[in-house]
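Handoff note, outgoing to incoming analyst
You'll be picking up this chain. Sequence as last confirmed:
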Amino acid sequence: MSSSESVQIPLETERWPCLSQNEFSYLPVPEIALKAGLIGTRPGWSYLRETVKLEVRARINSAATRKWIPYWNSTPLLTRLANAQPGVLKKIYRPYLSARLNCQQRLAVLTSHYDFIAKRGLETLVLRAALRLVRLAEISGKSGSLYQLKLVAMGQMEREGELVLQLLSNEVVIYSVAFTFIADGVTPLVAIGCLQGGRSDCALQ
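Most recent structure output, in case you need it:
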């Protein structure tokens, strides 16, 4: 596919309320902090261990940290995204997409992705997908099987990509693809971190 070509997927907007920029304006927007990345960690020694690891990594990569946390507080929707999936705050300190990327490169990749989302006006859709699966399309196959295309953000396959598209048949996952948008000059690229088949017997068939 050439760079001038694009694939458009018709969003079934009637299946969820209007995706407007002001949709979540009535919700409070608490400022996010690095320690929020520990939400969901088991209490006790696990929490202490993860706290030490996160603080040490943040200090070692202090230059990246000084850009990373303010980035998530730079717009209300970015802050809501980080509050919805606080694990994103740890991503620049761990392997992501490729083991060859260093912390500064991971910072550049991740901010590039969310800048792309913002420029395309997709922040609210991604926020919805960070909170729950969003159905994008539904079609009937030749055999009468019903197929759905669903989007999940930030939570699944968290080291392989920021967005996951799932193809399902009768609510059974057939394929999942994790990907991240990356800016390469003026042309955005799609970096695919993982393509995974379903694990159920129905998916294997």
